[in-house]
Design brief:
single chain; 16% helix; nine-stranded antiparallel β-sheet; alpha+beta
């Protein structure tokens, strides 16, 4: 009987505890963008985004993907491949891997990517986050001028 009371109390506490509203996650900026591989097969790179958690509880960021554009050139999808934990009231940087083939790009676009000039980076998509079975999507639409390579 004591186990039953304990279980009921536990579920009531979890229920009330999970009713707290999530505050919107914020992308604080593109911390770095660099190409790791340019070949005839395609382009690989890394987009490092700063993500801020204004909530009083930590939770997980689940695999998510964004559409990435650099200086008007569509680079494809950048993905976070594994679940990561973000602490409460914290800002951390997360690496999103970018892979694209060259079928939609012309030679001038590829040359423009490798010159290292400052360009406008646009990141659009949904960031999936949550705790236990409660998950939410946070829309991300961010643009910033950055130099290629950092």
């Amino acid at each position: 009987m004591n186990k039953l009371k304990f279980l009921i109390l536990f579920f009531v506490l979890v229920l009330f505890n999970s009713c707290e509203e999530f505050k919107e996650l914020q992308v604080s900026g593109v911390k770095s963008f660099r190409l790791t591989k340019v070949s005839a097969a395609g382009i690989e790179g890394e987009v490092i985004l700063g993500i801020k958690n204004p909530n009083s509880r930590g939770f997980s960021i689940y695999p998510s993907e964004f559409d990435v554009t650099y200086s008007g050139i569509k680079l494809g999808k950048a993905r976070l491949y594994k679940r990561v934990h973000i602490d409460a009231n914290c800002e951390k940087n997360y690496v999103f891997k970018l892979k694209t083939d060259l079928k939609d790009m012309n030679l001038m676009d590829i040359m423009g990517l490798t010159n290292g000039k400052v360009g406008k980076m646009e990141v659009k998509g949904d960031l999936k986050a949550g705790k236990f079975y409660i998950k939410r999507r946070f829309p991300v639409d961010f643009s910033e001028k950055i130099g290629l390579g950092g």
